[in-house]
Design goal:
Helix content is about 30%, strand content about 15%. The chain has helices at about 5-15, 55-65, 95-100, and strands at about 30-35, 40-45, 75-80. Strands 1-2-3 form a 3-stranded mixed sheet, with helices on one face. The longest helix is centred in the middle third of the chain and has 12 residues, at about 55-65. The mean pLDDT is about 95.
Amino acid sequence: MDQDLKDSIMGALEEVIDPELGIDIVNLGLVYDVSQEEEGKTEVKMTLTSMGCPLAPVIVDQVKAALADITEVGEVDVNIVWSPPWSKDNMSRYAKIALGIT
């Protein structure tokens, strides 16, 4: 996957807002990696802020919807992983400021 496509995918994922925190999943540091096979099948490797997140299916659906408009992206597989575990250290400066975390 070239850098322009990866940037487009990450930009689209910035439109996916965590419903509980009100910050996008990229700035929260929930997206660990994106990769793509030649046929356009795209994998988003990500985590959630907690294992018992009741909104996981909503976030997965929003990820798929956010990538649907990118021509190069075909089928989307959202792979939720728990290792490495998410922490507030994964958050961008913007997310920390927005949530009042120092």
